[in-house]
Amino acid sequence: MQRVGPNWRTSSYTGTENCVEVADNTTTRVMVRDTKDRSRGLLAVEPKNWAAFVEFVKKRWDCKTFGVTPDHGRCIDDQ
To answer: C-alpha distances in angstroms, 53 versus 3, 6, 64, 66?
Structure first.
């Protein structure tokens, strides 16, 4: 069995150099690293935890930007 290395990518929404790279081409972990300083290491998380994080960010971004959640519900201020 041939070992597969990380397939690093950045978000298509990235408009600046202040971003992270993600490698999610394995079933056992998702890896995240700093684009500007790749030598600092990486963070590895379980795919289910990464998916939960991404969903949370999507909901917060939609809420703060458009005033609604992705399912068209109202935003609730958490303060």
So the answer is: 27, 20, 16, 20
